[in-house]
Amino acid sequence: MLKKTPFYEKHIEMGGRMVEFAGFCMPIQYKGVVKEVLSVRECFGLFDVSHMGEIKLAGKDAENFVSYITINNPKALEEFQVQYSAMCYKDGGIVDDLLVYKFPDHFLLVVNAANTEKDYEWIVENAKCKMQNVKWDVVVENISEKIAQLAIQGPKAEEVLKPMFDIDISRVAYYHSAMAKFSGIDVLLSRTGYTGEDGFELYFDAKHALNVWDALFKEVPELESCGLAARDILRFEARYCLYGNDIDGTTNPIEAGLSWITKLDKETFIGKEAILKAKENIKRRLTSFVMERGIPRKGYEIYKDSNRVGTVTSGGYSPTLKKGIGLGYIDVPHHKSGGTVDIVIKDRLEPATIIKGAFYKRGRGE
């Protein structure tokens, strides 16, 4: 049986085309993928992201424990600040990428839907033992089923949402959060997202889900509902990694371009030794490329001078750039920006130009 988010009936009412994703029945699109993508890029769009996992960590050792299981540094966070991070296995492979929220009395880890149970079990297992077999003073709780989550993304998201809250949401900085009232309901408002645009994510008790949804559409009837396909294109254009495509247990954060969140100056964290070793001999890099002809897809082979040098991990047509774009692991030194490679598409070699960083960079709110 597939799980359903609290908004399942709303998706059906609005004509959402439902598919299986990460064990959930989710809308892949409503009125059309391109329309939804452009709505977010030009105005705003709404996403049901209640399938995401939420894991709460409390207790005297919570901060030290989060630092131990993640590669970024949660000790640098202020209260209500948010941090992008990842968890790694001892061999340096990535368990999951996630958001870390710091609150006055606990931490909240927001993890990928497909990994929620795996992540929770891995965290609990690591919480059982410490140096000298002394148990961490930390309480780990999977609260995913209690939480509903909506994301409103786009350059006009702040403008349209501002009158609906009891706080001035313009004062919530990028990658910060705040407690607020929305239509009389307590919500955690977070200036984060997965689209490359400015915007907000709302977390609240799942029992209020329909009230929040109805209030949003009452105040903003022109709000565009968006599905998984648009979300994937948007994150891809902004070069945000997707677990299972661009990162997984076989990739380390250095080759994945996540050095910026890998704090190797921390005293210790799971996977540090392996990542330090890997850093000395990086053989491939997660690389961005664009195509003037042809659409790359996951799994397509990448060639340079008749030699296979990599594989596409994410690929598709970009409605924003109006061309094919892709991500893939390419062998060093063929990954350098400005260079060219060939993508195998239906037994043809189609040229691609390597670029540095994201395909789309406007509007992140940074």
Topology:
Layout: H1 8-13, E1 17-21, E2 24-29, H2 33-42, E3 45-48, E4 53-58, H3 62-69, E5 82-88, E6 94-102, E7 106-111, H4 116-127, E8 139-142, E9 147-153, H5 157-161, E10 177-182, E11 185-190, E12 199-205, H6 209-219, E13 224-225, H7 228-237, H8 272-279, E14 284-291, E15 301-304, E16 307-318, E17 323-331, E18 340-345, E19 348-355
Parallel strand pairs: 3-13
Antiparallel strand pairs: 1-2, 3-9, 4-7, 4-8, 5-6, 6-7, 9-12, 10-11, 11-12, 14-17, 14-19, 15-16, 15-18, 16-17, 18-19
How much of the sequence lies in strands comes to 25-35%
Provide the CATH architecture of the domain at 8-49 and 146-236. Answer: 2-Layer Sandwich
- Element string (H = helix, E = strand): HEEHEEHEEEHEEHEEEHEHHEEEEEE
CATH overall fold name of the domain at 8-49 and 146-236: Gyrase A, domain 2
Description:
Keywords: Aminotransferase, Transferase. The glycine cleavage system catalyzes the degradation of glycine. InterPro entries: GcvT, GcvT/YgfZ/DmdA, GcvT/YgfZ_C, GcvT_bac, GcvT_C, GCVT_N, TrmE/GcvT-like. Pfam families: GCV_T, GCV_T_C. The chain is α+β, with helices and mostly antiparallel strands and 366 residues long. Among the domains are: 8-49 and 146-236, Gyrase A, domain 2 (2-Layer Sandwich); 283-356, Elongation Factor Tu (Ef-tu), domain 3, CATH 2.40.30. It contains eight helices and 19 strands. Strands 10-11-12-9-3-13 form a six-stranded mixed sheet. It has a six-stranded antiparallel beta barrel with strand order 14-17-16-15-18-19. Helix 2 (33-42) crosses helix 7. It is globular. The two termini are 40 Å apart. The mean pLDDT is 96.
